[in-house]
Amino acid sequence: MADNAATSGDEGVERRDFLVLAAGAMGVVGTASFVWPLIDSMNPSAEVLALSTVEVNLEPIPAGQAITVVWQGKPVFVRHRTEEEIKQAAEVVVADLRDPEPDSARVERPEWLVMIGLCTHLGCIPLGQKSTDPQGEFGGWFCPCHGSHYDTAGRIRKGPAPTNLPVPPYSFVSDTTILIG
Question: What is the pTM of this model?
Answer without folding.
Answer: 0.71
